From TrEMBL:
Subunit structure: Interacts with FASLG.
Residue ranges annotated for the ZU5 domain, each copy included: 167-304
Protein location: Cytoplasm; Nucleus
Top-level taxon of the source organism: Eukaryota
InterPro entries for this protein: DEATH_SH3BP4, SH3BP4_C, UPA_SH3BP4, ZU5_dom
GO cellular component: cytoplasm; nucleus
Protein's UniProt name: Metastasis-associated in colon cancer protein 1
Pfam families recorded: DEATH_SH3BP4, SH3BP4_C, UPA_SH3BP4, ZU5
Main location per the UniProt record: cytoplasm
Keywords: Activator, Cytoplasm, Nucleus, Phosphoprotein, Transcription, Transcription regulation
DNA-binding found in the keyword field: no
Amino acid sequence: LDLDIDWSAVFKHAHAVSKTNPFWNELSASNPFVHDIAASNRNENNKYLSILKEKPYLFSKASSNRDSLASSGDELDIDCLLRKTSARRSGRSKSISDFLDIVDNQRFNPRKTTPQKTVPSDMTCLQNDREAYKRAWLSHRQLTRSCLDLEAMSHSPGWAQTQATDIHVICKLNHEGGSVQLPDSDINIHIPAGHVSPGEFQEVGLKAILNPPSSFNNELSSTVSPLIELTLSNLNTREAIFLEVKVAAKVKNDPLSQVMSDIVCFFSLTKEGPFKKLENFYTYQDTIQVKLTDVGHVMYAVIAVQASKIQPPATNVWDYIHRTVSVGIYGPKYIHPSFTAVFTVFGHNYIPGKLTICDIKKGGKNMPPIVFQLWGKHTFLLEKPQDLNISLVSCDPDFEVKMEDQSKNIKEEELKTGEMVRQQFLFSMLGCRDIHFFVFLVQIKVLKSSQVMQFHVTTPDPAPKISGIINRPKRLQNRKEIKSAPLLLIPTVKYPKFQDKTLSVNTYGVALKTVLRQNKIDYLLEYFKGDTIALLGEDKVKAVGQTKIKEWYVGVLRRKIGLVHCKNIKVISKEQAMDTADSEITTKSLVEQIAMPFKKLTYIYSVVLSTVSESVYDWRALAEVLGYSHMSLDDFNEAHVDKESERVAHVVKKMKEDCHANKKKRLFLYELIVALLKIDCQGLVARLTQDTIILTSAVKLGKYWRELAEKLARLTKQQIEAYEVPHRGKNGAVALEVRLW
């Protein structure tokens, strides 16, 4: 593109301002639009060139020098930053993020990978429009700030956090077609062969708008994907295109849910609508593929679950689906002594790698918009919109969460909107030690039930030292360093000490009838009329039967925990209970009965070992509840002393060997789960439960996979056979392990 335009005439009106501003010369070094004016005042037009004149193709070619899709000034390669420029020039017109990216690239990415090609922007319209050209430059620079005193800025909270955050991708395809995927997502566009005529091209753009239209979130409808923007450059098409999206929900398998609700796609040629419901789509579990025939240069699509009507006992469309909630923890690119972490809940399963935060406050004042990086993410099943309690706890004694920020709530109404919900948590460093990365715990509690989810997040490193980087570009390019962490930074967690005592119960139930079963079921209680049953809370367990939904309480009778039908008992208070001797239970018996199903579940030892060793941060606490309180560091081999995870793994291996030596009396997985419950690792137990149940189900039902695929997944015989073809052996049979997975 011919962008060598003389802008000097345009800037003549600003000369008067430049003469009265003492900071004009310094300001011009970081702003190409005033740089030419300051240079002309010094009669040095030929010596100092605007970045626009020096790099006229910056917008269209920057992405080809990086293995990233971003093309802002602070995402450029070091060669693009330092080539053919003086030392003074390098230090005065590049932002702090530029130099941090240079350090990262040289330290941790010395060998570049093959970059992805993107379509150059069409900038013909900017040649004769100064304002449009200026807006384009500012758009690419977006939030980047240039800094004069780099060393001073490195100690300022919030430094080097502003970068361009384009959540989109553009690809150029020929008549052979292809697929375009939005990075870090399950959103794809499939362009079939013959979509355009031979010799023609199609530029396909894909973008995710995180907050979907609010009109699709109500009692009868709920969005399960972001608002997706599609762009096409060529409308002279011969074949339709296909949009494929993995959504955050699945319709339940019961007949009522299947009849009352469905996953649908809404389409519009404008962002504001109106949207129309598309008919040409195919749904498989949580993935929907939509055929788009009525195309335009810009199109918008959103996926939602829609109910025809709400039939009691359902209260909204959430009651007909299994809804997955995705959360992300965002923070600055580098940590400093005081920083903010942002907990974000999404109404879909797309969690972007960068997020612009506009409501950060410092000293009671609003900060400029800041781009935060994704530090960690988690997904969990939420059957209906409920109030959530979020708490963050530092696992490192050198850091703490501000007292008023340790626990925050997210309301049910906020989840129903389908939009992003954010909560901010302020971390601060204690004492004057050297700053370092650390681990903190994120815990999510559903307030109306006992559901608890937790996961750990590791912060990034503090900012690298950048003093002297400006004057030593050659030495910087040749330097190679290995990223390492100090050994003293192993996170420590204070686990509770388990106490075996009688459980305090506030609610009881009196049996209204006698229930004895000929076929004994472990998780169902048997009782006589008049028995007093202790209830572990008033929450009800819903089970879908053949004709209706049954509700159960979790009760205790004769030291056994099980389910009792709600209609078979009368709920009374603790004061009304007459004889409660048969309904007492200790905390030890409680955790042992909770773990009872693990005696019959299948597991993979290596997976369990790695999961536990990565998630438990105190080997002594685990050893004590497993009965190895006598163990000391002298019992470990030298290879197990350095890392806490290796010590935890050594304790687990020791217990595995002891259980294997006494197979008749001891069961490894059962005893491990009991121990984890005693030190309150509920999130870890939930993860192991999910893994073992899936594996056990696969092993038990592997040989019936054809029937399951046909009835549950609704696959046709042709689809089943097509899946089997690449997995058949020489005798034409499919191996068992293939069927399991």
